[in-house]
TrEMBL record, chains A, B:
Transmembrane segments: none
Organism name: Paenibacillus rhizosphaerae
Name of the protein: Bifunctional protein FolD
Domain Tetrahydrofolate dehydrogenase/cyclohydrolase catalytic, first and last residues per copy: 8-122
UniProt record similarity statement: Belongs to the tetrahydrofolate dehydrogenase/cyclohydrolase family.
Role noted for this protein: Catalyzes the oxidation of 5,10-methylenetetrahydrofolate to 5,10-methenyltetrahydrofolate and then the hydrolysis of 5,10-methenyltetrahydrofolate to 10-formyltetrahydrofolate.
Example of a GO cellular component annotation carried by this entry: cytosol
Catalytic activity: (6R)-5,10-methenyltetrahydrofolate + H2O = (6R)-10-formyltetrahydrofolate + H(+); (6R)-5,10-methylene-5,6,7,8-tetrahydrofolate + NADP(+) = (6R)-5,10-methenyltetrahydrofolate + NADPH
Length: 281, 281
């Protein structure tokens, strides 16, 4: 590419979203409502603790509240669900985030599905997944929503494009695939059992990396002019994409950090404000 | 292809499934339970009336019951939902089928979602869709389930294969894509806005035609040795696949009729028996 690659600036997109929330939070506060996100952290994984802290801080910076629930690493599914149910019925809590992953003894799906759909601002419930797949979710999963928001922000066309999603998790690969499909992309979903992955990725006009392996997506897999969205965040601030190698080929790319990550948090805040506004009726 | 193309005999697969149900229906009947499928037909579309009659007849041939509800073409969403709710609470009804499509004034999604998940034997609810997408639905949508069942019956490997699904409806294209994905296929989902459809289909080792247009899938799109599943059923007993042209290329293909159609009805019967057995506790 002789043209300069566009760096998709997630920090800027996130800031714009958050700027748009300030007046909404103020208006709510005039009505006596402070949007409140409850975060649940089970166990003491340091990365998870950092994520939860970042989300709490992001709330407070916008004048929102953050209720932090920390549970022992040995918490059972039943205990966790009881905590979630308390938050479901707490009128001061508008959104609930259960930090992923939870310790292995917990039935994560059961815990996610204990979250009331109207407080599922992180978009993790089974029902919320399907509503999103059918295009009418109140709160689509935050990382997929962030990816779509970045594409929209930079007016990158999706309709009729061939998008290749690498990864098929319930809160990332699957929902983002269906969201791109609903925007009229032709979508190929790849994963660990895919054969000839490089050849398939090389057909993509839009690549979504959602695989959780550092620098997994190779530069020589990328078609000239492709748009690359890197939803990975691995140890050492490295994404799922071999950034330097892919940068040369792509027409646009999200960096890591300051790409999809900050927009994901902004979507979470936006969804929490949306939920709080519903309390106004 | 010099080798003979395998004709995937849906009538035979369906018969095997129904044969397997006979003893289960008998056992239930000894306990005083007759598995009952309630069918709802709104309006007087002759094709829909035929489908409903076929499903009712299929029930009776197995010693199951079929409760046929016929509603006026002018029925409102509210009226339809009230009928569904009656069936939800009727202990003699084990499965509910709302014949698709419904007249335009009805909110089809709202009507589908009024069906209690434990009676959603046709797999049309929003929640059922997501449970299927995550691999734990009690009753996956019947046509997608039929396609997977045919692949299984003929021991056609899916893992690592590239499957191309043409169509993205909530009860066919989307769920079958996710079911193939869950079986470790690499899945491409195409639709009316897809560019270069023929080129994409020509990469497929498994082709699922779910588009609702007669003879839409062309022979020269088909890779030598591909497996073709035709979920279409158009006027004049014609599928979505140009059968004669595709037959020459495919290693295996479902005919129309006697392909996916009869297996779809068998899945509906099986799900209704499954639901009735749950009443035994």
């Amino acid at each position: 590419m002789t043209e300069q690659t566009l760096i998709l600036d997630g920090a800027r997109v996130a800031q714009d979203i958050k700027d748009g929330l300030v007046s909404r939070v103020k208006r709510l506060s005039e009505q006596g409502i402070t949007p409140c996100l409850a975060t649940i952290l089970v166990g003491d994984d340091p990365a998870s603790a950092t994520y939860v802290r970042m989300k709490g801080n992001a709330c407070r910076r916008l004048g929102m509240e953050s209720l932090k629930i920390t549970l022992d690493a040995g918490t059972t599914t039943e205990e966790l669900i009881r905590e979630i149910q308390k938050l479901n019925t707490d009128p001061n809590v508008h959104g609930i985030l259960l930090q992923h992953p939870v310790p292995h003894q917990i039935d994560e799906r059961a815990a996610f599905d204990a979250i009331a759909i109207e407080k599922d601002v992180d978009g993790v419930t089974t029902l919320g997944f399907a509503q999103n797949a059918f295009g009418f979710a109140a709160y689509p999963s935050c990382t997929p929503a962030a990816i779509i928001t970045i594409l929209d922000y930079y007016r990158i066309p999706v309709e009729g494009k061939h998008a290749v999603v690498v990864g098929r998790s319930p809160i990332l690969g699957k929902p983002v695939s269906l969201m791109l499909l609903n925007r009229n992309a032709t979508v190929t979903i790849c994963h660990s059992r895919t054969k000839g992955l490089g050849d398939i990725v090389s057909q993509a006009e839009i690549v979504v990396a959602a695989v959780g392996k550092p620098k997994f997506i190779q530069g020589d897999w990328i078609q000239d002019g492709a748009v690359i969205l890197d939803a990975g965040y691995n140890e050492g601030n490295v994404g799922d994409v071999d950034y330097e190698a892919c940068l040369e080929k792509a027409s646009a790319i999200t960096p890591v950090p300051a790409g999809v990550g900050p927009v994901t948090i902004a979507m979470l805040l936006k969804h929490t404000v949306d939920a709080a506004e519903k309390q106004l009726g």
